[in-house]
Amino acid sequence: MSGESGQPEAGPSHAGLDWPNPERNRAGVPGGVIRRAGAQGPRSWIQKVLEQIMDSPRQCVTPSEVVPVTVLAVQRYLLEDEPRDTVPKPPLYCYDVTISDGVYQEKCYLDPSLNSLVYQNILKVGIQMRISRVSCLYNEKRIGQGILCIDNVHCGETSDSISLETPFRNRAHQEKPERPLRGGKSHYLALWNNEDPYGDIWLTDKQPEEHNFSDTKIISLSHLEMTWTNRRNFPALLVRILHKSKLRYYGKPDKKMIEPYQTFLEVADSSGTVSVIMWNALCPEWYKSLRVGLVLLLQDYSVKKSYPFRIQPVPVDPQIKLISTMEICLNLRDPPTNIIIIPEKQVKPEWRLPKLNHRFTTRSELDDMPENCICDVIGLLVFVGRVQRSKKKENREDFWSYRWIHIADGTSEQPFIVELFSTSQPEIFENIYPMAYFVCTQLKVVRNDNQVPKLLYLTTTNESGVFITGHRGQPYTYDAKNANRPSTSQAARVEIQESNGKRHQDDEPVNSQYFQTTSTNLSLSNKIRILQGPHANPVAVPQPGASVQTKGIKPGMPSIFNRRANTNASLQGKARKTISDRWESQLWREKKFGLIDHLHYSHVYPESIPRKFMFEHRKFLSEQYNSQPAKYVPPEGRPPKLDDFKSARSLGHFEVTILGLNHEIAIDVAFLPMYCPEDIRTSQIDTLLTSMNYSCAYPQDTTGNDRLPGPRAVAGDIIKAATELDRVHIVGILDICNLGNNKVEVYLHKIYSPENTS
């Protein structure tokens, strides 16, 4: 970055280099009018930079004065192919960055060579940054119009004072809905995945309306199945929504579709159930207003042969016929579909529309359920993990967003463990916290009884839906049979009873003995091979004499096992004491001074330590364990610090040094076994002797009134178990985590011996 002398200023290698400026498409640049500022009003740095560009014959310029600006928004979209491209290119996601200099706001185009700053969570909302090189992308069809392009930046720390009152210099940037600066797309995508609806094009105001059926001809689904190939016009359908899928974004650089979205609805009448596909611009208009249980009148739809490889969800009622030979298509045109939500009070019994039939299961029943079985669960959240991402395909920028949660229902000592992928409900996915009632539908059982310990958890499907507050009126509360079924969870019964007229407070913590004694935690960590996302991107750990690896697999021998446990005397941050248990092998004493390289990645940062949940700070804690937002949101009051919250990991963490087989390279990694003696439901259960294999610790079985050993005793047993691995060849699987801002952690996930690599 250039200072007053004009010389490059030292800075991080990822932000301070002179990035090349790739050739850009000069067509279709909306931009705003670039004009000189008058004599009135305060001088804006943004305005001065634009004037400097106008006066310069060069395409790129270095601002004569580099001052910090504040990042207010980082928004993502797909850039289309340029007209001269003959070979389709992989998707190129671009970013518009809104900055403020204290006088004006300006939306700028971020050079794609700087995209890695967003991926690594370095360029994010709320920070101050210095822009050291800019250019202007002109609209060649309009005189005096263009957009400001950021070509080189240095990203700083989060700003303490940010004002959102500064106006946009270009009024076009305030138009609704917001539109990207480049290309023909009409909207932005969610910042971290393509499944979540984002922005003001997604409407939520579709309301039920009474309909006069006297002049409406209705056809049943079964009759339509038999006759659709011989029809040119189709009568109306009167159906109930049984399932709703998450959104699918199928935009590609070579496709000129403005809103390339698709979603599936499974609908039914008295004669059968069929798939309905909603396409393109209808999705932003209708997706957020349609929910399971609504009755729809569909007119001016089209019918086509069903896609042979799509698997429909299991019908909610086994008596309903599953129609798989055709699909109903809803489009904004060809023909323009008419959708009407029928009020429930207008639904007549003689229509015989199917009722919803939820498959609520309890945790005690889950142990006997087969793999791939579908179920619904309801209970109290007792654990919420951080948002993570995993790549859909290698060498692509498309990711799945997911997090791990635990749900307790009072029927078992064990919780439901759920791998919760985004269900296109970001308003819920990003705002879940312990102590809240939680409902998740259409979950699939994942199990493996052959491994030790046995694998058993639930994962979301394409049709899964989640609910956290405002349970009154949701479709599952009308399913009265769940209230009387002995195996239905305690939480489900409470919810159904309250929906029938009992006192209900959506946002109040539940006051009952079972819920009061539940230990509730938030955690950033889980057992994932390679963590991806705004808080955990893949990072390469360089190894001398070898190519950079992103696979966290390391052969070697464990040499040092050092436990560190910081204990706070109180939440007010009184004196801390460090408990340390240490074992060091004789081999390490002999080899540690002759290493070629010793990699140090055992430090555990505050954001990776699970915290005890405090209800009054639920918003702050939820924000800490979510992905970075696309737009800056001012904090309420003076926010606390993560260190103010008590750790939920009573064992602390262990620092493990693994020595390479050739005794030339060693790496320090962190080992974080889960152990929570206050509430065994939140622990990842395993026997002590295999704790190194499964990242968890569990005390030996106790009988009668024997007390569970404390964390100090368990930690000592783990250190003792580590001594048994002295000079033993092992293969370690490491979780490599990039937390952003050059903070890297490496965790020991699992250890295999060569004799047992299953």
From TrEMBL:
<dbReference type="GO" id="GO:0003697">
    <property type="term" value="F:single-stranded DNA binding"/>
</dbReference>
<protein>
    <submittedName>
        <fullName>RPA1 related single stranded DNA binding protein, X-linked</fullName>
    </submittedName>
</protein>
<feature type="region of interest" description="Disordered">
    <location>
        <begin position="1"/>
        <end position="30"/>
    </location>
</feature>
<dbReference type="InterPro" id="IPR012340">
    <property type="entry name" value="NA-bd_OB-fold"/>
</dbReference>
<dbReference type="InterPro" id="IPR040893">
    <property type="entry name" value="RADX"/>
</dbReference>
<dbReference type="Pfam" id="PF17659">
    <property type="entry name" value="RADX"/>
</dbReference>
